Amino acid sequence: MKLLEGLQGAIGFLTTLPAGKAYRLEQFQQRTYLSSVVGILLGLILLVVATVLGVLLPGQPGIIAVVVIVSIYILTGIHHLDALSDFGDGIAAHGSAQKKVSAMKDVALGTGGAAFVIIYILSLFVVIQAMGSMQGTGSGWFGLGMALLCAEVISKHSMLTAARFGKPLYQGMGSMISDYTGQKQFIISLLISAVVCTAAVGIAGLGALFIGILASVGVVGVSNRHFGGINGDCLGAAHEMGRLAALVTLFLFYAGGLVVWMPY
C-alpha cells in the first residue's frame, strides 16, 4: 500500500498527471527510486506518441520532433526546464558563490538562463529530428519511441545520481530528494534503468545510461565549483542534461547501425 502511495507521490511530483493527495510525497521520499518507474510510464506514453506520428506523418521528422518536445513538457511540466534556466543564470553570474546562488534563485530570467534553454531545446529538436528521419518501415517505426523511453528513464536516474552524490546547499527542494537518496535508493534505480534500457535497445541502452550518469556527475561538478553544492535547480538541470545526453548517445548508436531495428 505504501509502495503504491509512493508511486502516486512520485507521479504527482514529477509529472502533470493526476496522482492524488500531497501527503503521498512523503511516501515517495522514502522510495526515491520510484522516479525511474515514473520515467517508464512517461517513456511508454512518448513511445506511443512518436510511433503514431511516425506512421501518420512519414517524411516529416521536423513536425514529429516539435510534437514530441511539446508532449514531453505537457507530461512533465516545465519546472525542470525552469530549473535549467535558473542553473544557467547562476553559472553566467559573476562574483562569489553566494552571488551566483542569488542569481540562480532570482525569479527573473537572465541572459545565461535564456541561452541555456534555447541551446537545450534546439539540441533536443535536432537530435529527435535526426532520429525521426532515420525511421523506416515495420519495426523501424519504434526506433524513436524506444529512444524516448530510455531517455525518460535515464533523465530520472540522472536526477537521482545528482541527488546521491551532490551536497545540498540548504534545506529546500534539492534536499527534499537528496536527503532521502542513499546508496540503496540509487542502486535500485540504477538496476531498474539498466534493465529497461537494455530491454528497449540492447547494449546501446546501457551506453546511453552510462553517458547520462556522466552528464549528471558533470552537473554536480559544475555546481560544486560555482555554488559550493546543489539545490533543486541543479537537480532539474541534471534531469534535463540526462535526457539530452541519452538521446545524443542513442543517435550515435543508431547512426552507426549498432541497433538492429534502425536500418541506418
The helix content, as a percent range, equals: over 70%
Runs with pLDDT <50, length 5+? none
What composes the largest sheet?
none
Instruction: Specify the structural class.
Output: mainly alpha
Fold and architecture overview:
The chain is an all-alpha fold and 264 residues long. The chain has helices spanning 2-14, 24-29, 34-56, 61-76, 79-92, 97-105, 111-134, 142-165, 173-178, 183-201, 203-227, 232-255. α3 (34-56) packs antiparallel against α4 (61-76), α3 packs parallel to α10 (183-201) and α5 packs across α12. It is globular, with a radius of gyration of 18 Å. The mean pLDDT is 89.
Secondary structure layout plus pairing:
Blueprint: H1 2-14, H2 24-29, H3 34-56, H4 61-76, H5 79-92, H6 97-105, H7 111-134, H8 142-165, H9 173-178, H10 183-201, H11 203-227, H12 232-255
Helix pairs in contact: 1-3, 3-4, 3-8, 3-10, 4-7, 5-6, 5-7, 5-12, 7-12, 8-10, 8-11, 8-12, 10-11, 11-12
Keywords:
globular, mainly alpha, 264 residues
Structure, briefly:
The chain is mainly α and 264 residues long.
